[in-house]
Amino acid sequence: MKIVVCIKQVPETNDVTIDPVTHNLDRRGLAGVMNPFDKNAIELALNLKDSRDDVQVALLTMGPDDYAESLREGLAMGADEGYLLSDRAFAGADTLATGYVLAQALKKIGDADLILFGRQAVDADTGQVGPIVAEFLQQPQITYAASLRLSGDNEVTAERLLEDTKQTLVAQLPAVISVRSELNTPRYPTPRNIQLSFAKPLTTWHHDDLDLDDTRLGQAGSPTIVTKVYAPEPVKRELTKLAGTPAEAASQLITALKGRQLI
Amino acid sequence: MSKPELWVVAERRLDHIEPTTQQLITKAKHLAGNQMHTVAVLFEATTDHLEDELKAYGPDEIRIVKDDRFPTATDAEIADALQQLVTANEPNSILFGATITGRSIAPRLQAKLQTGLTADCLDLRFDDDTLVATKPSYGDNIMCEIICPDHRPQMATVRPNTFVAEPADGAATVTSSTITFHPVDRLQVKTATPVVNTATTVGDASRVVALGRGAASAATISTATKLAEKLGGRIGVSRPLTDQERFTHDDQIGQSGNTIHPELILNFGISGAVQFLVGMQDSQTIVAVNSDPDAPIFDVADYGYVGDATAFMTALLAQFN
Fold first, then answer.
1. Locate the Electron transfer flavoprotein alpha/beta-subunit N-terminal domain: which residues (chain B) (predicted)?
2. Are A163 and B13 in contact (CB under 8 A)?
């Protein structure tokens, strides 16, 4: 059984700022780390690998060469091999153009029984790439899976939590799955696995390694354009101060809330 | 020439309409003015009448497609049905709730249509016929305006509770459309059951007791729970408390969590990171208690007390009792 986990590298913190002069996002000095939600997808793959002998786990990401760091981390967790899709032609891709390149790479990797994603990336928060890849590959999808188990030779059973409904779904493989972070607790790389990871294959594919329609790549292949980036400004209100001891202040608040017919 | 169509894809939640649908119809009507034709697209079983939960919000049209397989249809099947409707009607824009269902179907449809989709929007407007969607990024620390200039339809998912549903005058025209249902046999929804704990989410609660780092002890949470019960409300938390086992991201306010606007929110021990403030600042009455007089939460509060959050909470609960 072959599992491919698609991962993304994100800034290590969301505390990004806007350059007051250029109005561009200032990401200088921010190191990249693996998107934390993607570790839940890797953990699921490794769980399945632990449970039977024939499971191979590959990691796939698209980005600049330094995204190899996240692949290395995933290999140190226990995955078997990594694929990096890196080319200037891929830069500036929105979710559609990203999904296209990932789908073409998955076709080249071939025969994946399960394609796994984290629920979303913590920087852009879209969660769109998994369903886009599923559509391009014409595979069924189970998004936001809260649990997943192999329920037959070629079949998985998953629970999916909607806002107030629980669904049980059964999929024949191959299928695309995105997982909720509550699904599991990702393992840490052990020193031994870190040691072993350096010998694991990490393949980089550039533009010419894949069968690609150039009109669907990068910025040119992205229907969406970001026209403005800004920091949200909370709207200030006129503050009425409550004063005195906690009991006195609480009493003032109750009077105020009664005046507003809130209690 | 007929007006361009602005669609809201109605979402079903068991036997009812998901409230985000009604919020989006109200917003779509405001956006459309006299320039666009608002359509609520509804997939339902032959015996369903979920349109009755949409009429009061006054879309120009409710376009119904009936098939008994829709209540348990999977994402790919719904996306396929939508693609057929899009091909037949060529809408200008399509809005979905950024619910789990909406966020799963919309990108599938986007891939079929090879167009742009902006996720989890907090605001929408039109510049001529271009939809300008405001999307948070980096955990709501940054807002981006995103357009899709050269492809149609334009698509967006909108965070639940971003807009307020308002009943509207005007009779919606109810029409029916047909599509060919293409079943995907490789994926089956076996069961769908309400989650056992059906307590309202923090997004639905009209009163919220919000707890942050300065109100995180077990005793304080216990007092806060009693206070929330007294108020007929619910506890919400800021990001630090989601590390505690009893809270999840579903309880979180702001930060790609829940945007809320209850009639009353009491903030205890929350300093007020910008993503938290943006996530709750449309609440009708905002109360803040924090030991730091310079905490940003006081900038957006109507009532504020500088002091110990637990002591104030205990005093407040005692006076309620």
1. 6-191
2. yes
Exposed, middle or buried, B309 (CB in 10 Å: 0-12/13-18/19+)? Answer: buried
Q: Which member of A134, A162, A242 has the closest CB to residue B101?
A: A162
Q: Could you report the predicted ipTM of this complex, rounded to two decimals?
A: 0.90
* CATH number for B213: 3.40.50.1220
Token readout for B172 is 């919606």
User: Do residues B161 and B23 make contact, with C-beta atoms less than 8 angstroms apart?
Assistant: yes
What is the dihedral angle through the alpha carbons of B286, B289, B290, B296, rounded to the nearest 10 degrees?
Answer: 10
Surface of A (157-196) touching B: CB under 8 A: 157, 160-172, 175, 181-182
- The reply to whether A126 touches chain B by the CB within 8 Å rule is yes
Tokens 């200030």: give the residue.
Answer: A236
**A123: chain B residues, CB-CB within 8 Å:** 137-138
In tens, the pLDDT along B264-304 reads: 999 999 999 888 998 899 899 999 999 999 999 999 999 99
Q: For residue B196, is pLDDT > 60? A: no
Q: Which range (A192-196, B167-171, B245-249, B282-286) has the least confidence?
A: B245-249
CB pairs < 8 Å spanning A and B: 262
pLDDT digits (tens, 9 = 90+) for B227-257: 999 998 899 999 888 888 888 877 888 755 5
Residue A56 CB neighbours (<10 A) = 15
Q: Give the one of B143, B274, B319 whose C-beta lies nearest to A250's C-beta.
A: B319
User: Which helix (DSSP H) or strand (DSSP E) does residue B318 occupy?
Assistant: helix B309-320
From chain A, the residues in CB contact with B112 under 8 A are 135
pLDDT bin (cut points 50, 70, 90) of residue B36 is very high
Interchain contact, A170 vs B187, CB within 8 Å? yes
CATH number for position B107: 3.40.50.620
Is B237 found in the same domain as B124? Answer: no
To the nearest whole percent, how much of chain B has pLDDT over 90? 76
B198: pLDDT confidence band, cut at 50, 70 and 90?
very low
Residue B34 CB burial class (10 angstroms; 0-12, 13-18, ≥19): exposed
* DSSP class per residue in B153-171: SEEEEE-TTSS------SP
Lookup result for tokens 């354009």:
A225
Which pLDDT does position B292 carry in this prediction? 96
Instruction: Give me the residue from A131, A181, A253 closest to B287, CB to CB.
Output: A253
User: How many Å lie between the alpha carbon of A149 and the closest alpha carbon of chain B?
Assistant: 15
Q: How many domains does chain A have?
A: 1
Across chain B, what does the average pLDDT equal? 92
- Would you call A242 an interface residue with chain B, using a CB distance cutoff of 8 Å? yes
In whole angstroms, give the CA distance from residue A242 to residue B306.
8
B201 touches chain A (CB under 8 A): yes
Domain interval for residue B244: 207-320
Residues B271 and B168 reside in one and the same domain: no
> Which residues in chain A touch residue B146, judged by CB atoms under 8 angstroms apart?
224-227
Q: Are residues B163 and B229 in the same domain?
A: no
CB B249 within 8 A of CB B203: no
